[in-house]
Amino acid sequence: MPYTYVWDLFVRVFHWSLVVLFAANALVIDEDSKLHHWVGYAVVVLVGARLIWGFVGTRYARFASFPPSISGATEQLTEIATGRAHKHVGHTPLGALMIYNLLATLLLIGLSGYLMTTTMFWGADWLEGLHKLAVSWAEIAVALHIAAVVYESRRLKINLPRAMVTGYKDMGPE
């Protein structure tokens, strides 16, 4: 079975670190605590590092390997609807859109959270509302991402979570 090295160590550590930090801040840590702020800053640093890695990293980590494409996403939805199975070595078009969505949303959460600590925006209700809306959107997107990973793993017979742990995708026969 053809195992293909797709996710480098940086991408995998980034992914799972982000999972732990976002989940901790969204579900466990008190939002008024200093720890919440520091974990938020760590998330922003991780996203910043991932943005850099998206330009200088390994083949499948580079943004050039998964450009945002509405037509590609539409084609992938058509494949799903018609029962066709096209395996992608790197990110799928829908997966690419989700990644861009999550990176942008996490930056918005981090920026709005930081601004809420500044004198200029202290107590600004609209900013707190934006922050909470962005967090809610991120939680919905994460739930959709997890559901899509499970669905696509079964549909394509590729264990995507294992690939994000080991770095290797078992592409199997086409």
Helix percent reads 55-70%
Category from helices, strands and their pairing: mainly alpha
* Low-confidence runs of at least 5 consecutive residues: none
Order of helical and strand elements: EHHHHHHE
- Taking all residues together, what is the mean pLDDT? 95
Give the strand line-up of the largest sheet. 1-2
First-to-last CA distance: 11 Å
Give me the CATH fold name.
Fumarate Reductase Cytochrome B subunit
Q: Supply the number of helical segments.
A: 6
What does this structure look like?
By secondary structure, the chain is mostly helical. It has one domain (3-62, 84-167): Fumarate Reductase Cytochrome B subunit, CATH 1.20.950. Helix content is 68%, strand content 3%. It has helices at 9-28, 34-56, 70-82, 93-115, 125-156, 160-166; strands at 3-5, 168-170. Helix 2 packs across helix 4.
Give a topology summary.
Elements (H helix, E strand, L loop, with lengths): L2 E3 L3 H20 L5 H23 L13 H13 L10 H23 L9 H32 L3 H7 L1 E3 L4
Antiparallel strand pairs: 1-2
Helix pairs in contact: 1-2, 2-4, 4-5
